[in-house]
Specification:
Layout: H1 4-11, H2 17-31, E1 40-41, E2 67-73, H3 77-88, E3 94-97, H4 106-109, H5 121-124, H6 128-131, H7 142-155, E4 168-174, E5 179-184, E6 189-197, E7 207-208, E8 219-222, H8 228-231, E9 247-251, H9 255-267, E10 270-275, E11 281-282, H10 291-297, H11 302-314, H12 327-340, H13 349-374, H14 378-383, E12 396-397, H15 401-404, E13 410-414, E14 422-423, E15 427-430, E16 433-436, E17 439-442, H16 452-456, E18 460-461, H17 468-471, E19 490-492, H18 505-526, E20 531-533, H19 535-545, H20 585-598, E21 604-606
Parallel strand pairs: 2-3, 2-6, 4-18, 6-19, 8-17, 9-10, 9-17, 10-13, 11-12
Antiparallel strand pairs: 1-7, 4-5, 5-6, 14-15, 15-16, 20-21
Helix pairs in contact: 1-13, 3-7, 3-18, 12-13, 18-20
The structure holds NADPH dihydro-nicotinamide-adenine-dinucleotide phosphate (NDP).
């Protein structure tokens, strides 16, 4: 395999930027389609079986009609870290409500072979220091991450009150009793003094709207409901032995497919990979973590130091050292080096943007050179090259994906940006050719640009009957991304309008958990029944956010379509509110730490 120095020199030919940009535009135009998000199918009616949980049997239970101090929607990282901090703060009854059969959120559902984190375990896996767990690899595989979720659940005693296989249907503020009324699809109707929401951005699987999709007579499933009963093998990567005589098709070549394809290539008799847009696939360089090295660095406060170091390297800080050293910090370092190389008087926003673009051109040339260096068949190599800026789509990192296309029996079926033409009883049609298959696996991703109430399955009804959809009809409005005026005692655990650190979402979540637990503890100590952000404080925060540069780099409108840029469609004026603290993530974390440590919680009203 070529090392990164060889790739850098292969890519170091002079770059014809105009030609490259013209190519990027042409590739994007090929993929644009007027139906945007409407091209995908919602998994309801005849398609709802694609949502069935293959992992945990459903257990009947009596509906809950009691009262808890804190109820949390979602048992993924957000709920777990918030629950853990609340327990530490002395809140005995925290009830997490989760649609899956256990904790884990995305890691509960995504058990496809090869699933692993793309952000380094040391900073991605939450509460490592508190639980005393040493990640086994630089990029841990899914079973280990799921086990970390369970470990947090056990250690912080979150299992006892949790409701699994339960979906919220309504959350209604009862102003007379200063509490939330929570209703679910299991007939529960209980109350809570406080609620938290951490439903995550990518939890509703979608199918591509391909004509004939319901007519296929073979087996099919979505990657987030992997059917090991059919494929054999298991989530730890054991050979899927029952695929040895099967013709398997996988539709989609995003981050999920990139991780699953090498395993399918190893197991299936024939594997057909149906591609609409190639992913950019950079070097992974995963490695086991050496316990001796870990013991030497895991001194008190280590994980917070690592989190802050990554964020400083990645999101505009000035760290001298790069502890994590991965693809994310590499790209940021290149951009920073180029910008710092500019003479002082030329450090204009325009020149900085040009520096970013130059770094990106270089990086993408390296990634394309890597395809040529690895993939033996020239035509296949050409088709696997990504023609867009790296942050137009989710960057991928893998050391076996491109190699899989050298395996006999693995076929790349490129649709030249058009997508699969049709699905028949027997298989998949592309360019008029029918590929007969025993099994179709949909690596077609998750709903992003749809109405949030559709994805959540409920709305919030706050003070005086105001719903969250009404409050956010012109876009998200909050203070710190956590508090929303009109919704007392409710806390949102997510990155937007806070640090907005997308490259390591858990950093946002673990930090918000600290803030929330301190606020709840303070309210309980003061005997306050309600905590709410004032209208003024929320307006001021939103106004401050709008002084920033807006969304930069990730998924700009001139990118090839995908969920990063609302499938290439104008996302409307509300999208300009999907931003973070103008001074960047590091500055936000410093600001919020000072805010919560001051103890007056400026902007919040305790009553
Ligand atoms: P994506 O939405 O990224 O990919 C969906 C794929 O399906 C795309 O390749 C898309 O093509 C393709 N597709 C859609 N419609 C058609 C069609 N009609 N014909 C052919 N192909 C079609 O979903 P993923 O599950 O891969 O990833 C979702 C997100 O989950 C990631 O972006 C990432 O944020 C997260 N993730 C993180 C991982 C990690 O951290 N380790 C691993 C996996 C996922 P096109 O690109 O043209 O739209």
């Amino acid at each position: 395999m070529p090392d990164s120095n060889e790739l850098q020199s292969a890519a170091r030919k002079p770059i014809d930027k105009e030609a490259l940009l013209a190519r990027y535009r042409a590739e994007r135009d090929k993929r644009l389609r007027p139906d945007g998000n409407a091209q995908y199918l919602e998994l309801k009616g005849q398609l709802s079986h694609y949502l069935d949980d293959p992992y945990t049997p459903f257990v009947e239970r009596a509906p809950k009609t009691d009262h808890v101090t804190f109820a949390f929607v979602g048992g993924g990282f957000a709920g777990l870290v918030t629950g853990a901090r609340l327990k530490e703060a002395g809140v005995a009854d925290v009830r997490i409500v989760e649609k899956g059969g256990d904790f884990g959120g995305t890691w509960y559902w995504n058990r496809y072979p090869g699933a692993q984190c793309d952000t380094a375990s040391m900073i991605y896996m939450p509460l490592l220091e508190e639980t005393g767990h040493m990640p086994t690899e630089k990029y841990a595989h899914a079973p280990e991450i799921l086990e970390q979720c369970r470990r947090i659940g056990r250690q912080f005693d979150l299992y006892g009150d949790a409701l699994f296989h339960t979906e919220i249907t309504a959350l209604t503020w009862d102003g007379e009793r200063s509490r939330w009324v929570i209703e679910t699809n299991r007939g529960d109707r209980f109350t809570a003094d406080y609620i938290g929401l951490g439903t995550g951005p990518l939890h509703v699987p979608k199918l591509p709207g391909i004509p004939g999709i319901e007519s296929f007579k073979g087996h099919s499933f979505h990657t987030s409901r992997w059917d090991y009963g059919y494929t054999g093998g298991d989530p730890s990567g054991a050979l899927m032995d029952t695929l040895a005589d099967k013709r398997v098709g996988i539709i989609g070549t995003g981050a999920t497919s990139v991780q699953a394809v090498p395993h399918l290539a190893r197991a299936a008799k024939e594997l057909y990979v149906f591609q609409r847009t190639p992913s950019s696939v950079d070097v992974r360089a995963n490695a086991p973590i050496d316990p001796e090295w870990f013991a030497s660095i895991a001194t008190p406060g280590w994980q917070q130091r690592w989190l802050e170091n990554f964020t400083a390297n990645q999101a505009g800080g000035t760290a001298e050292e790069d502890l994590v050293q991965d693809g994310w910090t590499d790209l940021s370092r290149r951009i920073r080096t180029k910008i710092m190389g500019l003479p002082r008087d030329q450090m204009t926003p325009q020149n900085m943007l040009a520096a970013y673009e130059d770094s990106d051109f270089e990086k993408m040339e390296e990634i394309r050179a890597r395809v040529d260096a690895i993939v033996e068949d020239r035509e296949t190599a050409q088709k696997l090259k990504a023609w867009y800026r790296q942050l137009c789509k989710r960057p991928c990192f893998h050391d076996a994906y491109l190699q899989a296309f050298n395996t006999p029996g693995v076929h790349l079926i490129d649709t030249d940006g058009k997508g699969v033409e049709r699905i028949t009883e027997k298989g998949v049609v592309v360019g008029g050719v029918e590929y007969e298959l025993d099994c179709i696996i949909y690596a077609s991703g998750f709903e992003v640009g749809t109405e949030w109430t559709r994805r959540a399955g409920f709305d919030l009804t706050g003070r005086d009957g105001l719903t969250l959809s009404q409050a956010w009809s012109e876009g998200i409005k909050s203070m710190h991304g956590i508090h929303v005026h009109g919704f007392p005692n409710a806390f949102f655990v997510q990155p937007t309008q806070g640090a907005n650190l997308i490259s390591n979402v858990p950093h946002n979540l673990t930090d918000s958990a600290r803030t929330i637990s301190l606020i709840v503890k303070t309210a309980l100590e003061r005997g306050a029944k309600e905590v709410e952000v004032t209208k003024q404080a929320q307006d001021d925060w939103v106004a401050l956010l709008l002084t920033g540069p807006g969304r930069m780099m990730i998924g700009s409108p001139d990118c090839t379509p995908g969920y990063y840029n609302n499938e290439g469609q104008d996302p409307g004026p509300a999208a300009k509110l999907n931003v973070g603290y103008p001074a960047g993530a590091t500055a936000y974390f410093k600001y919020i730490e000072e805010w919560r440590n001051r103890g007056d919680f400026e902007g919040l009203e305790f009553r």
